[in-house]
Write a structure and sequence with these properties.
With 125 residues, the protein is an alpha+beta fold. It has a single domain (3-122), classed as Trna Endonuclease, Chain: A, domain 1 (3-Layer(aba) Sandwich). It has helices at 3-21, 27-40, 86-99; strands at 45-50, 53-55, 58-60, 65-70, 74-79, 103-108, 118-122. It has a 5-stranded mixed sheet, with helices on both faces. Helix 3 links the parallel strand 5 (74-79) and strand 6 (103-108). Helix 1 (3-21) crosses helix 2 (27-40).
Length: 125
């Protein structure tokens, strides 16, 4: 399964979660529910995956964590904020570069319609 097929399944699951929960909850609630939905759909998912920083050939644990990693190919960075901004996008891109991932989804659940809160992020390795 390629990154685009995975992203389609992720977005579908995220929309289902949003339809049930709506906006206004904490990020952690959406993370747990989306993790559950993705796992139930048969995808390989990891939650809070540690992302070490390599500096001068040394791996350093700086506390970076990917919210959800799907099929070891697509990262999901979840938010529940009034609006997404450049810092959220930069965070997603940084995780993608550190892990050498090509595709990320930045999803803000604190919107009326989830399609307004989804940003597709591509890393042109």
């Amino acid at each position: 399964m390629d990154e685009n097929e995975i992203a389609t399944k992720i977005i579908g699951s995220a929309i289902e979660v949003h339809k049930v929960l709506g906006p206004g909850l904490l990020e952690s609630a959406y993370k747990e529910c989306l993790f559950y939905k993705l796992r139930e759909s048969g995808l390989a998912v990891e939650k809070e995956k540690a992302m070490p920083l390599v500096f001068e050939k040394v791996k350093l644990d700086c506390g970076y964590r990917i919210d959800i990693l799907v099929e070891n190919k697509v990262i999901i960075e979840l938010k529940s904020v009034e609006c997404l901004n450049d810092v959220h996008l930069a965070q997603t891109l940084t995780y993608m570069k550190l892990g050498n991932y090509r595709l990320g989804l930045l999803i803000n659940f604190n919107v009326k319609f989830l399609k307004e809160g989804i940003k597709r992020v591509v890393n042109n390795l």
